[in-house]
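Hi team, as promised in this morning's meeting, here are the two structures we talked about. I've kept the exact order from the run log so nobody has to guess. The first one is mostly here for context; it's the second one we should focus on when we meet again. Sequence first, then the predicted structure tokens.
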Amino acid sequence: MQPLKRNLLSVALASATLMLANSAYAQSADQNQTQAEDIDEIKVVGIRRSIEASTETKRESTSIVEAISAEDIGKLPDTSIADSLARLPGLTAQRFGGRPQEINIRGFAGDFSTTTLNGREQVSLGNNRGVEFDQYPSELVSQVLVYKTPDAQLVGQGLSGTVDLKTVRPLAFGKRAFAANVRGDMNKVGDEKENGYRYSFSYIDQFADNTVGIALGYAHLNNPGQAKQFGDTWGYDGGGLFGGGKLYDLENDNERDGLMGVLEFRPNENYHTVLDIFYSQFDREEQKRGMEFAGAFGGTVQPGSTPANTSFTNINPVIRNDFNATYDDLFAIGWKHELRLSEHWTATADIGYSDAKRKERILETYAGVDPALARDTLNVVFDPDGFFRHDFGYDYGDPNILRLGDAGGWGQDGYIKDFEVNDSLSSFRLDFERSFDDGWFSSLEFGANLTDRTKSRASNEAFLDLSACLGGVSPACTDGFSQPIPTDLRTNSAFNAYGVGSIYGYDALRAYQTLYTRRANANGDISNKNWEVNEQVTTAYVQANINTEIGSIPVKGNIGFQAVSVDQSSRGSETFQGGGNGRPLEAGAAYTDFLPSLNLSFDLPWDQVVRVGAGRQVARPRMDDLRANNNVSIGVGLAENPLTGAPNVIDPATGQLTRFWMRDGGNPKLKPWEANAYDVSYEKYFGGSKAYVSLAYFYKDLRTYIYREQGIFDINDTSITPADYPVNPLLVPPSNLGGFTRPVNGEGGTIKGFEFAVSVPLDVLWEPLLGFGIQANYSDTKSSIQPLGPDFPDEPLPGLSKYISNITAYYERFGFSARVSQRHRSAFVGEVQGFGGDRTRRTFEGETVTDVQLGYTFQSGPLENLGILLQVNNLENEPFRSSFNGNSAQPREYFEYGRTYLFGVNYRF
């Protein structure tokens, strides 16, 4: 169905373009003027106001940008910033927990873009650089700009683009305003419901003859969520039979508080200062209940089984009750001063600080069928929606057949991971601008920006053992390693998904606090999660702003360059086969990048604009790739020699399999991703900035990229000594050389694509359609970049969907408003939290998400300016799913998040 959807959207976009063109040329100049005058008399508010403000920003920019503007104070068009961003041309979002969170720009994952708040680079709460946009309440943001082309004065820009979040400026707003929004929401998955709410307040005012301005905003979110998950863990055997899977019910409590404050002072035309503060606290707790089990890879396949209908015996599920939580704090402050030195000179100084802290817990507890009972039977039947239906012999909601303990034979009764992420960034910027009264250049800007960023991650992990079962048989343990589940821990056991009616639920956190003992786990994988990266970046720039004419054609734009000096370092450890915390390591590198940029905008007759952009863009390496950690081990029983690729054999001298040194780690000396970027855009505007159609093409030629490479190292060049490994000569590799896997810089690759967009209030075409409008865009992107290196030429770039489309139809008049939005992206490689708490890549299938919004605002009387709002998000209950090798008959993961219904009121005066 995807090609059909793409074709239909292309036809719709082309038709809209032709209609616009025909309408423009079919009317006389007098008729156009009359209609424009009539339309200008209409007070533009709400959805259309937001669209027209965004279009005006796009038209007036000297770079190629996309923009989102708030419909009103405290009111962006969508419930989240990520939702709004995902509707822009060339942008899309990856969903986490049912919410869009990470933004992908032009086929690149979130780590390749940079996010700023009021022009200052922001830190992130995840393991790497990608900002989680659900940390920023939409009610506190007045505008978002996405820069697609580089601009010399834009410090901290990314390879794919730069997202600048802006809070309101009270003096520019120009009047007193107060707004309050309250919404209740309900998330529904099947017959199960979760209710939540959100509210916000915003206040803007001016004092002292409009020389002092203040803006305050507060937003609270209480948003429980839920999901059902089918996951295939073991894949499929050679005959395509179901290897085994996971079934989970997830219940989430999400609570966020956001605060924004702006103090602005302009005593005269020569001095202007702004102090702005932003704070967000976001706490998320998840109860995860379910089971995991082997099928063909552990059970016994019964005769007559087929891939679509398989029967097993000897099934032994592990019942899981887990508790996952993240507690986030995000803070940013900035103070900017502008001083007019003379008629032509202006100086600006800006100091900023951004800080983020995350505490995360992943807690697992296990149970299984009483060992005194026989193992279970299972029949699985493939459902064309993308999962398997299960029919077990036992009722896993019955606590009488279950016992706590190591049901899977994993050597533990549970496991706990506690992570902590800290990220802080200090910045200072000094700029000067010299304006000119005539000539090609309107002004010359130059300056420097200094940032000092430190990000660290720490991991504390342990096995969990049942306290009552330690040291031999206890009365609480029926067989020496398991015990009944205490009845006072019981929670909801209903499951009702994928053919399973119930799975026993208990309070995992309380169980951990009362029933378990920690047993330390020290190994190389854990020490690899403990690292610190520091970056000191100095950016000097000069930019000439162009405002001239070539013949009769006005030309705007800029030309300039940045010199970016980076001094990076990392601290970590080097371990041997999990031997404790290892020995400390510290390494780093220093380098300088020169980043030229050019942007030109040509204003052609009949409201046509042609833009060209060229420049060099960079994305600094992922934080976990920069870590100094190394883990050394001895490889034995490998399928092949890691040095030569030859089959592994028995050493005739020792009778042992040949052993090899192996090493895996990060690389603190990495250089960034770097590309030469070229852009061209054609835009046709109608009715001033009321409507437009645009066609853009971009091409990025990579000079460097980063992938994991296997090379050779010498054990004598490491900190590992004979005291760390066995002295038995039969166990020591005969050669000092070994295979080393680490991230390195590669060369080459391109990414290119085109973006088509149209925004039309339909009264531009035909006046009786006043109030109706359409926004739509379509993107087609191709890449030859090899993110896993030359040995994997077909691996796609993370975040890249070849096809992206968005369409929004809206109506707004006489106080009534309605909007239907649909966004689609084709299959892509995303990152999810994998085993051990690290990010892992996963190929997800394409998805289409539809949202609906209805509203009414009272136009007069005692309820004037009171608005009522009804929304349904994910109207068609679109799942988030993946499969093995793109084979829909072999599903890998299937998340069902359900629909979310919102009802609220808005009031402003």
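And here is the second protein, the one for discussion:
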Amino acid sequence: MANTQANTAKVDALLVGSGVMSSTLATLLKKLDPTINILMVERLDQVAAESSDGWNNAGTGHAGYCELNYTPQDANGDVSIDRALTINANFEMSLQLWSSLIDLGELPQAQQFIHPTPHISFVWGEDNVAFLRQRHQKLSAHHLFADMEYSEDPAVLAEWMPLVMVGRDKNEAVAATRVPYGADVDFGSLTRQLVDNLQQQSGFELKTAHEVYALQKQNDHWHVSLKNRSTGRHESIQAGFVFLGAGGGALPLLQKSNIPESKGYGGFPVSGQWLVCHDESVIRKHHAKVYGKAAIGAPPMSVPHLDTRIINGKPALLFGPYAGFTTRFLKAGSSLDLIRSVRANNLKPMLDVGINNMDLTRYLISEVMQSHNDRIATLKHYLPDARAEDWTLAQAGQRVQIIKKDDSGRGKLEFGTELVAAQDGSLAALLGASPGASVATKAMIEVLERCFPERMNSGWQQALKELVPSYGESLIADGQLLQKIRQHTLTTLGLTAQKKSRAEVVNLNHQPETNSDRRSTG
């Protein structure tokens, strides 16, 4: 029987993807204009099941505290801290929004999605110790990082991360930094709570199991074609504004939009895997995110870390991620995604990246070829007493790194996030990965600024400042403003509270087992 075509529905804003980006943008839009009519479309049958799912991302509240790739060292050995400062200030904007929503009663207790988890950078070897010492000196001199602690004393490090120091060579040079109020964020739980709150408001609709297969600009609106993946029924939407926040799926949709700004962009997909610990006694003894230095040629998403997590209310200990190459743009995507993304306007940049990044290609191939014992050998750098039988491999999420033209017209590979917007502001797409979910608030405010400039200048800016008090000011430049804001956010989000036992955390966060719980331990 032929599929039927429904009448065209009209909305002010169509948000594609139900992850943390779209849910944050929808939340901001409804706070700034409660009358706005929003439709959120998700191709899977549940919310936040791709990049925002707790098992598909690091869960680190990326603030530059522990991620050594945010403070690169140049050929002369000088450490640059500019990117770490920017990422820290951007993450503070997310903390402010979440705090405001809790104050307003629009998010539940913070313990449902965020937990105080010290952020630690750990290195060994004289050269790496010298690097970390310089990094600490520079960062701690700035008010954003003034609370960062540093030590080369094995006894102190054993207090910070006891399992990491057990069985280690006592003659080995080691060093670590620590920020005690780092955060572990279950972005899947956060996203579901944001969407739950949106669904209680008029003018918001969520369609799961619906896929966008075509979009075309017609006069002052976008004509978007959907397919219900459950029934096969086709639907038509007329939207004044479209946001493509579909993770790796954003690039193909951006290409279908055919806006001039989309030309030349390509994608480089990278998969990931975690080692997951199943020994409860080990899980209970580690309470920190311990980040090290990435291997030469490794993408930023593969910076190794021994990672305390609370996912769907359950404690977990993960190590990784181990990177791999895939042709899929989404975990639930097609193996033809990469081939289908090739266009005449991005072929040369993609070929340039392939030719000029052979080290990355070799690294990804070597990661794929590793055995379980190879992965355990890497883990032993962070957990010397690790036993292979206590750890199993679980699949993490997909990331699509950005390929674009540089100033000379050649292709380059970028590992950050980038907003691509139509000149008239009627469509925006977020591409890339790191630091991703942690800076969702900053990224979605950029969407508002670029796509709704008149409304921002006609009252939205002031309303936004009530939700994000640092908006329009610089936390990098203003230490007093930071102190005032940080004191409130850390208190509201429970990041300054004394460390709770694992049992207390589970009691606070207990929720029924989900499909993601089951698949992670299989």
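Starting points for discussion:
The two ends are 40 Å apart (CA to CA).
The mean pLDDT is 90.
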